[in-house]
Amino acid sequence: MPRSNVMNFLANVGRRSWFHRIDPRTKIAVILVFSVIPLLFTDWRYILVYLLLTMPLWLTSNLDFRPMAGPLSAVGIFLTIIFLLNAVRGPSELTGEVDPFATYSWFYQLGPIVVTSHTVTRGLFLAMRLVAPMTIGLLVISTTDPTYLAKGLRKLGMPVAAVFMVLAGLRFIPIVTEQLFNILDAQTVRGLSSSRIQRTRLLVLPLFITSLRRTRTMGLAAESKGFGSRTWNEFYEEFKLGWADKAMLLLLAVVFFGSLYVRFVLGYGTAPVGWLK
Amino acid sequence: MAAVTGAKPLARGFTAVDLVTFAVFAALYRALWYVWHALNALFPFNQVLNSLFFVLCGIAVVVIVRKAWSATMFVIAAQLINLFLQGELLVAAVMFLAWGILGDLYIYSRMRAGADPFSSRRDMVIAGALMSLVWVITVIDISFPFMFLIELPVATYALASLATLVTGIVGAWIGFGLGDQIRRVLR
Predict the structure, then answer these.
(1) What is the ipTM of this complex?
(2) Where along chain A do its domains lie?
């Protein structure tokens, strides 16, 4: 993975779009809805609706996708493996006990490997249902300054300690990762063997020590400014829900309650997908 | 570190330096993902290394901070990063918050008994083993089959659980040495 993709995941924060401008609390609501509701359904057509619902957010956020290629491709690889693990099966799919939930219309067998119409459908569904939950956080983090996000979390009542850790963690990931690559470069320059295990072994201690030295600097700076003596509830920015926030929250409420109604009152959105019937 | 800074303690006695330490170790845990990707370990085989690095970072941070409930604070930081950066499933992230609880309870009980668990490799390895156990149960035995619906033979799950538990214990052993070494270097 190119290092620029690792270190520049915040590269889109400075761009301008309506999604950049909306209140961080609204963005957190977006995460909550899209990371929970799609998991209630097991029919791929309903999952597709949620994917389509998130598309406008991605397409209208004025994003440069190059810095996000790394995280997005990591999600893509993960979902591809989920698909393959469920789609590529063994002969028991054909010869096992008769399972009315695993009927298939075609199959392909190559030695011990069996793929059926049912396993492909199941694999596709299982990968699809994770797309929206696993990417919506990345969209929010890419369009929100970490400080602003932290203030939004604080406004929602999250404890100061947790908010401070979110802020410090997001700030430190690019720094720590850059340090990691610097150490790897230094190892290369010094002619260290290309054994990945040896390089990893020699990487850990300097990486941890250099990172911890930074924590002391940042922690002491925070404490010298009286961190912990105040509740950090007042900000110079005005946190106010604009029309875009209200429209988005209304839409999220419709999606949320509509989904619950469809799934639990009408009983739609379920399909046989494997061992969890 | 709190003694060094003399700062006013926050909730549960954690200072800003402690909180940043948790956040940085959580960031390190995230950064180490790139290392095991470089080792060409892909999901689900990377989970064996995942537990090693998780417990390694968790025990190292506990040894450095030397306060009760440090493992849970580290896990909270890790899951917040997991949720926002990786896009972890919310339900999974909430469940994963339990990773440090058993280890912390053990450390707390040892502290209440008058021992100094942070200086004892035995205590730290036991705490790490408990963290690894919860990690295995929540990740391998619950989230894979029931959240990600990955259908694998029960024997495969059992083998993966055992292997992951063992690498977690190895991570605790390394983490204690690493944390102790770092602490001495930083002193």
Answers:
(1) 0.75
(2) 1-144+240-277, 148-238
